[in-house]
Amino acid sequence: MKELIVKLLEATIDQLKQQELLPSDLNARIMVDKTKDKSHGDLATNLALVNSKPAGHKPRDLAQLIVDNLPNSNLVEKTEIAGPGFINFYLNSQWLASQVEQMAQSKTLGIVQDQHQNVVVDYSAPNVAKEMHVGHIRSTIIGDAIVRVLAALGNHVIRANHIGDWGTQFGMLIANLEDLAKEQGIDPTHISLADLESFYRQAKQRYDSDEQFALRARNYVVRLQGGDEYCHTMWRKLVDITLNHNQQTYDRMGVSLTKQDVMGESLYNDMLAGIVDDLLKRGIAVEDEGATVVFLKEFKNKDGQPMGVIIRKKDGGYLYTTTDIACAKYRYETLKADRVMYFIDSRQHQHLLQAWTIVRKAGYVPESVSLEHHAFGMMLGKDGKPFKTRTGGTVKLRDLLDEAENRAREMIKERSSNLSLEEQEQVARTIAMAAVKYADLSKSRTTDYVFDWDNMLAFNGNTAPYLQYAYARICAIFRKAGVTLQEHQASLELNQEQEEALAQQLIAFNDVVHQVAAKGMPHLLCNYLYDLSGLFMSFYEACPILSADDSVKASRLQLAALTAKVLKQGLALLGINTLERM
Ligand code: ARG
User: Fold this and answer.
1) Distance 122 CA to ligand 1 centre (A)
2) What residue ranges define each of the domains in the chain, with the CATH number in brackets?
């Protein structure tokens, strides 16, 4: 409720500024605290004391001015001015109780579906003929959480999986696929590659060492770009094999991407020539030593001159930037995006800004449509260095998930021996995926992130198992009470401090979810759920539920039920499953 009072005070000060009763440049410091002694109300602020000078009023006069202009709110029962100019607030716990009751009756748990934008979310984006690795994990997990949050607020969300499915490497990949099919005597359209990594490595190695092979590969690149049917079929095969692999990983992780969401680099191929010509014609791009270049004064090269961004090479080839220019244009023109959110690691920041500067100059996407880079740092090992296998290789996502399950299985065998083997397996898998996802989601994404098995699987601290356990524990209370959690409805009586604190946290759910959508920051929801669990534990310790009198018991069960529902729904928005027993 502190925040609600701060909001009320902010609104009052804004209004007083508009009425010129306070200086318009006043940067008021507003602090609201719990009172030590209930005879001074529930909350108090010293705002009139600390802002007296810049506001140009004596403290008590300023306090009076604010109290007189406070908007009507059911939240505040009464106010008083105390001592040198403190303002005390007496809160209306009836109001809080009714807020919680409304929330308990709402299908969305109080989430207001007031957003109706077309939002394109660019995330995951692995490359064809390569296995997904740790480098894709952050984009995939964070992007998928944001997609769920945006949809829950009423938006129409378009998932865009911008896979790397185009480029000169496809010549050698096609040649290699062809040979493999020949050796095995099977139709190349029926080959499946168990190990994409070694396939890619093999192709590259042959390209570098075998001149005949390289020649054939280069010929295939030209044919593929020219629309040759055979090369196109082979290319399609490589894409399909990769997508099948990736889909298994997505399904295993509970990531909501499907093959329908693939909008890879190849999709924009046909737009590239037209865009480069258009930019040339309009003088935005120029020919420079045979290449086509856009000089951007917004970016300086190392000599302090406008930076040249190449959009077509001397040999006629296009670049990653050209594709992202076309891609932004397509998302606005064809997908009718109001907002585009890119979840890509921070090393690509300059690349995106350059592509978008060109897009804006050309007027391909109006300023009213936001293009947002939600960048994140790298995944590091415990030693603070990039996360690698013991032998220094890239960690495949598949291997990482296997290890998570193995570790969770060991842990559950010890902890939950009361469960059947089948249940144990189910619990272990759910916890494993949750732990990997939550460890990433719960850190502010802008910084590098240290991947630490022990931390993420711990049952205490801000972890998935802790939150899942909090949920399972509430389910156990309901089993014991013989009451259905989903259906329990009762009116609330908020008498204890811990009940009020829990109720206040509960009603903040909608706000937090909106913040996550605005900022693209799922850790805000993680922190909220973690605090909610903590407040529930304090409540549970201080306020006996099952032994209380009927109406108090019903009220406390209501708080518990709503806490469980918010935990489950909040975790679901993060792409994390809960368990009723663990
Ligand atoms: N495939 C790229 C990579 O692995 C990421 C693509 C991100 N999206 C984009 N529109 N550029 O680095």
Assistant:
1) 9
2) 1-91 (3.30.1360.70), 118-376 (3.40.50.620), 397-574 (1.10.730.10)
